[in-house]
Prior knowledge:
The chain is α/β, with parallel strands linked by helices and about 260 residues long. The chain folds into 2 domains: about 130 residues, Beta Barrel (Elongation Factor Tu (Ef-tu), domain 3), CATH 2.40.30.10; about 120 residues, Rossmann fold (3-Layer(aba) Sandwich). About 20% of the residues lie in helices and about 35% in strands. The protein is built from 5 helices and 12 strands. The strands form 2 sheets. It has a 7-stranded antiparallel beta sheet with strand order 4-3-7-1-2-6-5. A 5-stranded parallel beta sheet has the order 10-9-8-11-12, sandwiched between helices. Strand 8, helix 3 and strand 9 form a beta-alpha-beta unit. Helix 4 runs parallel beside helix 5. The longest helix has 14 residues. It is globular. The structure holds flavin-adenine dinucleotide. Flavin-adenine dinucleotide binds next to strand 4, strand 6, helix 2 and strand 12.
Amino acid sequence: MFSATVVRSVRLAPSFQRVTVAGADLADFEWRGFDHWFRLFLPPAPGAPLVLPRVSGRSWWKPYLAIAEHERPHCSNYTVAALRRTAEGGAEMDIDVVLHHDSEGAIAGGVAIWASTATAGSPLAMLDQGPLFDPPADTRAVHLVTDESGLPAVRGILRDLSADAAGTAIIEVPSPGDVEELTRPADVDVTWIVRHDQTAVPGAAALAAVQTSVAAVGRVDPLDYAFVVGESTLATEGRRAVHRAGLPKSRILFSGFWKHEGH
Ligand SMILES: Cc1cc2nc3c(=O)[nH]c(=O)nc-3n(C[C@H](O)[C@H](O)[C@H](O)COP(=O)(O)OP(=O)(O)OC[C@H]3O[C@@H](n4cnc5c(N)ncnc54)[C@H](O)[C@@H]3O)c2cc1C
């Protein structure tokens, strides 16, 4: 468990808030790049103390549930957007948080509210989990698919792939202002999809794009590797589409990063 405090929080794009956190502890965080993720623990309310579960080995869930409900920290999963060593011997980490909204247009979700209101010095903690992206050594091409929740992960993967990697990336975002220039290998084609209908289920347009593209090519090379994350239907149906097109399940990493409430 790594302790840190908020340094600053800035609006990165219409749908993203970048929270930068720092702490002496973070100097020991062994960032492996790509989509390296962690469990983020926040106080249950602004100004409340941060009571943390005792972690032993991989076990943290039972001790977490054992914390009295009114003291139990908010816990959610996030990607390391960047990690920088500081001159003082510590480290700074960026966390890019999607600002999602309820039906009245107010920012919803414990982390999204925290990110948009976080003040310097407020405490948090992180439990390191490592990357999910793990293509076999014989991988020919990679196919990355996500909605906005997996943009930090896909951005990290594209940044850290070897320069001769080939493949495709389909990235759905809510707003044209969320589209960004990505550092990537020259042979990875990136398709951005902007969700013009704000009432549409996030990820549905990316899923349609995957289904259309596998239908167009007919067959995916069984030595490719796919990484399909985001809203849970995008993850499960996206995996189904690439598997039906010939990619073995063992070469598809899929993960429902969150669940749309209408499902
Ligand atoms: C490995 C991994 C890495 C992740 N990395 C990131 C990351 O770097 N940045 C990031 O923003 N998210 C990331 N996520 C997704 C994030 O964990 C979820 O979106 C989480 O639910 C957000 O927590 P919250 O406290 O804001 O909302 P919650 O309290 O969990 O949910 C409150 C409400 O908001 C809805 N909701 C949650 N997320 C979204 C969303 N993205 N869009 C619309 N509605 C939503 C829920 O359906 C629910 O109705 C990652 C998930 C995983 C598994």
